[in-house]
């Protein structure tokens, strides 16, 4: 990001640098404000979950819905997770927020008309907190959701502190929930993680889906094909995320990717809209929420 700022400043002269300084100041201020307000957002009921359906290999049958955290801020409007999840991690607030996400997602999943899996994202901080196994166990017990319908998504960066992460993942696996490695391919040692930790699913990061166009002998296709074959060889399911157009979808179907997710298939939506969608009453490729 710093390089990017420098580039913009160089490209547009000295004044631009000053403008950018102001912008950075504003951003720091916003961050401080978010930290302060996030602390009470949970109690005030300003957090909610949206759900993005994930489809089977045919791109039609919904098989899962990923819970995505949203903050309805009184002045800023709907704040996306990138703007506050890292703040929540730094302050430790992600632990109570994460426990709430787990409970809400399991409870919502019990109201769906089809027994889809529900996927919940876990952050590093949660994985290294002692209570994570109890939080998951409690969310299942309170909602009555069978463990096999819950899948926990962990990004590669969460696995940096290996020993603690391995223990937590083993304990979670024993509960019977699924484990997915999110944003696969973007970390520094993706393959090493596959060797050390047991997952049920890989989620190919959308950076690899983005350049897919036609099933020709291009490098982007070769890469994704190799990841899908890797998953198959290791007996893992494989989801492609970030599918934004028909061309990408076609390539992924032809490559035999087992699950498909992206704006082209369905946008993240409020829980009520998901229920309408599952009942056939709602177009999933609607406006972003
Ligand atoms: P993620 O787990 O990789 O989730 C996928 C993100 O990609 C979501 O963004 C989703 O809206 C977006 N997305 C889905 N399809 C497309 C597409 O076709 N094109 C593009 N450009 N984007 C697409 P969102 O909801 O803003 O979430 C961002 C990240 O925040 C998530 O990435 C996840 O790492 C984190 N996050 C979300 N909810 C939670 C949560 O409850 N707990 C924790 N710890 N992290 C969360
Ligand atoms: Mg995810
Ligand atoms: Mg992802
Ligand atoms: Mg991603």
TrEMBL record:
Keywords: Membrane, Transmembrane, Transmembrane helix
Start and end residues of each EAL domain: 31-282
GO terms for MF: catalytic activity
UniProt name for this protein: Diguanylate cyclase (GGDEF)-like protein
Residues of the full protein shown: 552 to 840 of 840
